[in-house]
Specification:
Helix content: 10-25%
Distance between the termini: 60 Å
Number of strands: 0
Order of helices and strands: HH
Low-confidence stretches: none
Mean pLDDT: 76
Shape: elongated
Largest sheet: none
Length: 74
């Protein structure tokens, strides 16, 4: 069994990256990225409850009804 060489991870701050790019003559401004459309993770339609022949399963009402007494009622 051979031992793998440990990986080396380097984390570069934004300031260090801009300085490195300026030294290399590249544009030191950060790249512009498109804004995220949604922070929700979307599930493919083939993985939905309906695709599997099931009814939608939401237990939110049950969880709200069964709050512990020390949590109080909203």
């Amino acid at each position: 069994m051979t031992r793998r060489k440990p990986r080396r991870v380097v984390v570069e701050s934004r300031v260090d990256r801009e300085a490195r790019l300026a030294q290399q003559g590249a544009d030191a401004r950060p790249e512009k990225r498109a804004p995220l459309r949604s922070s929700r993770v979307l599930m493919p339609e083939s993985e939905s409850d309906a695709a599997w022949g099931d009814e939608p399963d939401s237990n939110d009402a049950r969880l709200l009804e069964n709050l512990p007494p020390h949590w109080g009622r909203g």
